[in-house]
Structure formats: C-alpha cells, structure tokens
Write a structure and sequence with these properties.
The protein is built from nine helices and ten strands. It is α/β, with parallel strands linked by helices and 241 residues long. Helix 3 packs across helix 4, helix 3 packs parallel to helix 5 and helix 4 packs across helix 5. It binds adenosine-5'-triphosphate (ATP) and magnesium ion. The site of magnesium ion has 4 residues, from helix 1.
Length: 241
C-alpha cells in the first residue's frame, strides 16, 4: 500500500538539546496509530513535525510519495488537522471557533452552519455554541478542539492527548465517537495518549517514544505481551500488570 506520510531519519535539536533522534515512521492511508511515551519524550514535538508545523533539524518528510522540503504548501496543510494538547481557542464563540477553518477554506456560508452544528451536536456541546470559548471548562474546550478538527474532514488527523481533561464516562463516550468517526470517514490518524488503554482501544499499531527515540513498535496488545529494552519495560509495566 502506498504511504500517505513518511518520515525518514528525523532529528530535531532545540536549545542545544537533541529532542528527536533518528525517527523513521510512516502512516498508511486509513491507518490509526498510537504514540505513547513518558512526559517530555518528544510526542508533541513529533506531532508538530509530522503535521508540518515545525521544521526538523534534519531528515526527510514525504506526503503521498512527494518529498516536502521547506514549508508545506497550503493545500497540503489543509488536508491535515491537529488537535493540540492545550486547546488554542480564539476569543470568540464556540460556533465561530469551529466555523473558522471552513471559512478560511472558502466553504459556502450556507454549508458552514449545518456542518458546525452537526459536530457540536455529536460532541455534546451544541448548547455551548454561543458561549465564549475562553470561558469553557477543560473538558468542554477539548470537545471544541475536536469539533474544530473533525468539521474539516481532514485526510490526516493528529490528536495530542485529546481525552486528558475528560471525566471517565465522558471519555468512554467520546472514544466511541472518535472511533466511529475515524472508521466511517477512513481518516488516517496518529493519536497521542498517556493512557495505553486508549491506544489498545483505538489503534492497530503503536509506537513507544522514549527520550526522543522510537524504542518499540507493534500491535498494541503485542507490545504489552512482548519483552523489550529496559526503558520500554519500565514505561509499559503499569499496563502489563
Ligand atoms: N520549543 C521548544 N524549545 C525547547 N525545548 C523544547 C521545545 N519544545 C519542547 N521542548 C522540550 O523537548 C522535550 C519534548 O517535549 P514534548 O512536548 O515533545 O514532550 P511530550 O512527549 O509531548 O511530553 P508530555 O507527555 O508532557 O506532553 C521536552 O524536554 C521539552 O521541554
Ligand atoms: Mg505532549
């Protein structure tokens, strides 16, 4: 199968520190991959590089077999959506926050409202449509951030800890919604989570990033059963119990 996104020997150095080291990675169309690792291991940095928001110090990135050197063209960036670990919401209503990406893409005004309302409804936040997005709770803001990405129908979706501020029952429901969204739209996704059980649930393949290196990779359930280097064992021990 042709790769949708490929990264070869990616390194990222910042403030004299090697943050990402020799990352080789690819996403196949429609694949859902999990990315796990301890705090500070480089997960968010890797997401920013793979979504063309941050330029690696060295290494190559290709989208559908075409190497992307320098900044990615706008039409390519528009096929990618990122849900950031810290939702960056504008000082505007929830509706406007979710509608903005469609407006920027030139979507007809009459098509914007139904699309935005559909996702606000699916994510259980339609009643917040006219609230200022800066006044929301952490979990509500995460939902807005997800709606803002889903409404764009991206080809590739990067989700950085999308469930971290949700209470357990909400998280359960939202994971079901995300799962059905990804499958029904065949969206390719990379999901970062601190909770390996989310990855077991959503992803067919997972990467373990430790200190900027991919130290293990495989089917999530096999990662839990297999034996690995000591640093991976220490990280996975919590879920192996
Ligand atoms: N812009 C930056 N300048 C300098 N250092 C940075 C920058 N961004 C990230 N770092 C450092 O790079 C390392 C990896 O950070 P990153 O945010 O990618 O980790 P993470 O795996 O997402 O962590 P977490 O699980 O806490 O979200 C950290 O040590 C962080 O302090
Ligand atoms: Mg992070």
């Amino acid at each position: 199968m042709k790769r949708l996104l490929a990264a070869r020997n990616i390194n990222w150095r910042q403030d004299g520190k090697e943050i990402l080291k020799g990352i080789d990675f690819s996403l196949q169309p429609g694949e859902i991959v999990g990315l796990v690792g301890p705090n500070g291991s480089g997960k968010s940095s890797l997401i920013k590089i793979l979504s063309f928001l941050l330029k690696p110090t060295s290494g190559k990135l290709a989208f559908r077999g075409i190497e992307i050197a320098g900044s990615a063209p706008l039409d390519l960036r528009r096929r990618i959506a990122v849900v950031f670990q810290e939702p960056l919401l504008l000082n505007a209503t929830v509706f406007e926050n979710v509608a903005l990406g469609l407006k920027l893409r030139g979507t007809a005004k009459r098509d914007i409202r139904p699309a935005v309302e559909k996702w606000l409804d699916s994510l259980g936040i339609l009643h917040l449509a006219n609230r200022n997005a800066r006044s929301l709770s952490g979990g509500e803001a995460q939902r807005v951030s997800l709606a803002r990405a889903f409404v764009l129908r991206p080809e590739v979706l990067f989700l950085d800890e999308p469930f971290s501020s949700l209470d357990a029952p909400s998280k359960e429901r939202l994971i079901e919604d995300v799962e059905s969204f990804l499958h029904s739209t065949k969206t390719t996704a990379l999901i970062v989570s601190h909770d390996f059980s989310d990855i077991l649930r959503l992803a067919k393949r997972a990467l373990v990033l430790i200190d900027g290196r991919i130290e293990a990779e495989g089917r999530p359930e096999e990662l839990l059963m297999g034996s690995h280097s000591p640093c991976v064992e220490i990280f996975l021990a919590h879920w192996k119990k």
